[in-house]
Amino acid sequence: MTTQAQLGDSTYTLERFPLDQKNRSLQAWDSADEYLIDYVHEHHSHANSVLILNDSFGALACAFNQLTVYSVNDSYIAHQATLYNLNANELKADSLRRLNSLESLPNHVDLVILKVPRNLGYLQHQLAAISAALPAGIDVIAAGKTKEIHNSTIKAFSQFIGETTTSLAVKKSRLVISKTSGLDKHAAFPVSWPLEGSEFEIQNHANVFSRDSLDIGARFFFNYLPQTSKARSIIDLGCGNGVVGLMALKRCPKAQLTFVDESYMAVESARLNVETNLPEQLAHCEFVQNDCLTDFTANSVDLVLCNPPFHQAQAVTDHIAWQMFKQAKQTLKPGGELRIIGNRHLDYHEKLKRMFGNCKLLGSNKKFVVLSAIKNN
Known about the structure:
alpha/beta; seven-stranded mixed beta sheet; single chain; 28% strand
């Protein structure tokens, strides 16, 4: 099944990526995309170049493919989805410039458009970067669901960009309209905080989960990390700021540890945290932005540690966990172990038992379970 999107005057075939075979009907665009595209076509039809931020699956890049497009995203998967959907619609990618969330923004675009992220700190980081890069007088048009645009959202635009207004709501979506002032504003990222129960100082970039403190899942998972150096090769899959891998590295100092996440800010935070806290072991580590363990060498790793997410963008889905588990099994050596933490209600025990043929409960509390599955062949 494919999904047809009427965006402006054109129709596109748009898919979420990686493809979720069980939920192919999930839209790769929303009414905020539609509102934003219609507004730009009506009010900014003479723009030749556009800076796009947070285009989750490439709907905006497809709609403005006739322009020079700078597409900024913290998500490796979002960049892959953009290329996938451009190709699916036979659109050229020659005029597309992809930038990750930590790269410098261009200083010569006609228009800035963005989807409002859920994370206010990340929004502040992006608006500060826009204010630093662009001269006064550049229109900045943002879009989001009305329930996701709060007073704090408007305040952030006013603080970092300039005078800001909002549109009327259309299909439960709203626009935020502003214009650059030419003043260079700064956001206080990355942030740092002491990791409880250790001598470590943790640094987090703006778009990393549990940016300001240790999340309760990782805290519980610490009780069930490997205690010996038996595992010589370890992957922290979906690593976030890398605290799980960091603690595993402390307990297994001779291990080779690979930190993997689809967020550029997460992977860079993990690198910073190893460099800051265990600099002598930095050479034993690899930091990878990727779609789970796609293209990792099969039968190559002793242990995969994972706290799988159960959403992609705004949609709740278990296909990411399934992909992580499947690719972890492929990547593990025979006799290797996948060790995960998850919310009790997600029923990962049954998934792992079905996939690996075994699953052991290592620990639990009212909210979480820690599970272990061994690759037997």
